[in-house]
Write a structure and sequence with these properties.
Layout: H1 4-22, E1 33-38, H2 45-58, E2 62-68, E3 86-88, H3 92-98, E4 104-109, H4 118-128, E5 132-137, H5 148-156, E6 159-162, E7 180-185, E8 188-189, E9 201-206, E10 230-236, H6 242-255, E11 260-265, H7 267-270, E12 281-283, E13 289-291, E14 293-295, H8 298-306, E15 315-318, H9 328-337, E16 341-347, H10 357-365, E17 368-372, E18 386-391, E19 394-395, E20 411-414
Helix pairs in contact: 1-3, 4-5, 5-10, 8-9, 9-10
Length: about 425
């Protein structure tokens, strides 16, 4: 396992090699983005990559496809138009390969969950330098545990598609709803990692209700529960319309006379002790408002919905999710497993462009994700995915405090190419 210093030396060398061979990208319109497909087994992720490859060929776009060494590719090779994947064992090998060819403008990576964590840096670097990245992988393993690499890439991606499979145990439900992968051994669910035996193993897509998690996952669901809950996450950068989307959904439930509750984190958490007089209302940037219950810890949400004043609610709305504590992910999944519809809004990345720790896990364990975009304040791109912090008219340094709530006087939306963080050790300035 390479040390952090060794990894930095490798990344520095690759940066210099990449720039030397391919040149430094231009400014506006440089292109380059990450489109990530996630989901359980048999949800069509690799099929989407195959379609991307076919379209690239039709458009005369040069690309390379990569899979992890020893992995059987899921991209069908039905004819000679689709070249076979290059097998690699190290994420950095991808940059080594494409640095030699200036004409490559698209890179396809399948089964990203099998790569080391450096694949996140590699994908970001390629996208920052004008290469279109198309990737796919499991965000949850067969025990229901979060794959940290894919979860981080979900936050880094400019476009995110969470695919669903069809649960064969859902009788009478014909629409796709499976978001988990169940590993079966001789017909029985595997709940211990060491219990796996290659002979007789099988993978099946399962919905939240019928999935049986591993021993380490504390929020399992009983198949006898007739309620179907869900976890829907609305994420994106600042000014992308997350709160407005929550309020719009709440108004629809008002019209349908459905019962729901709204929750917000205590402003003492998000404002470092400075009380906000509008704390009891959800307020969007367009001025729309909604009454909300203030909680100082995520466990309070579960208590209120289980036996408190909100136990009659069918839907639970939660905004500003990035400010909650680390048990927030477990609370949301427990509520969904009890049959509640849980709709959560929150930032996926901080001003540095790095994931909030529990937000990446929330995206991975959710049943549906909407990744919204804003308008870049610098180039007017419609696909801004980063929150730019401004201090005295200049981009905030990487070492500044992560949590600093503010409005347009402190933050603006930026696309990945105009997002600037001086002192960021992981991004070419």
């Amino acid at each position: 396992m390479p040390s952090r210093r060794q990894k930095k030396n490798v990344e520095k060398r690759l940066k210099e090699q990449f720039i030397d061979q391919r040149g430094r990208p231009g400014g506006w319109g440089v292109g380059g983005s990450i489109l990530l497909y996630t989901g359980p087994t048999c949800s069509g992720k690799s099929d989407e990559l195959k379609i991307a490859a076919e379209r690239a060929i039709d458009a005369n776009i040069n690309y390379r496809a990569f899979i992890y060494e020893g992995t059987e590719t899921h991209i069908p090779m039905e004819h000679d138009r689709i070249p076979r994947n290059d097998e690699i064992s190290d994420s950095y090998e991808i940059l080594e390969e494409i640095s030699q060819d200036k004409d490559i403008s698209m890179v396809i990576v399948d089964d990203v969950e099998k790569f080391d964590e450096a694949i996140v840096w590699v994908c970001n670097f390629m996208a920052d330098h004008g290469i279109e990245v198309r990737a796919a992988g499991w965000e949850l393993d067969y025990l229901g545990e979060v794959n940290d690499t894919t979860a981080k890439l979900m936050c880094a991606a400019d476009f995110l598609v969470k695919q669903t499979g069809v649960c064969d145990l859902c009788e009478g439900y014909n629409f796709p709803r499976a978001t988990r992968t169940q590993r079966l051994q001789n017909g029985r669910p595997v709940v211990k990692r060491e219990a796996y035996n290659e002979k007789g193993a099988d993978f099946q897509a399962r919905c939240r209700k019928h999935f049986i998690p591993g021993k380490k996952v504390s929020y399992g669901m009983s198949p006898d529960d007739k309620k179907f809950g869900f976890l829907h996450v609305i994420t994106g950068c600042m000014y992308s319309g997350k709160t407005e989307r929550l309020l719009t959904m709440a108004r629809k439930f008002d019209v349908a006379n459905r019962r729901y509750s709204f929750f917000l984190p205590d402003p003492n958490i998000k404002n470092n002790g400075k009380r906000d007089t509008k704390a009891d209302k959800v307020v969007s940037h367009t001025g729309n408002k909604q009454d909300a219950m203030i909680v100082s810890h995520s466990d309070q949400i579960y208590e209120e919905c289980s036996s408190g004043s909100c136990c009659e609610s069918e839907i639970v709305f939660i905004d500003e999710a990035q400010f909650f504590d680390d048990s927030f992910v477990e609370v949301c999944n427990k509520l969904a497993n009890k049959g509640f519809g849980v709709v959560v809004g929150g930032l996926d990345n901080n001003f540095r462009g790095e994931p909030y720790s529990h937000m990446k896990d929330l995206l991975a364990t959710s049943d549906r994700v909407e990744k919204l975009h804003a308008v870049c304040s610098k180039c007017n791109s419609l696909f801004a995915t980063r929150s730019q912090r401004i201090i005295d008219g200049e981009p905030a340094h990487y070492d500044e405090e992560v949590h600093q709530p503010g409005g347009k006087e402190k933050y603006s939306a930026r696309c990945r190419h105009d997002h600037q963080v001086p002192g960021n050790p992981y991004k070419m300035q």
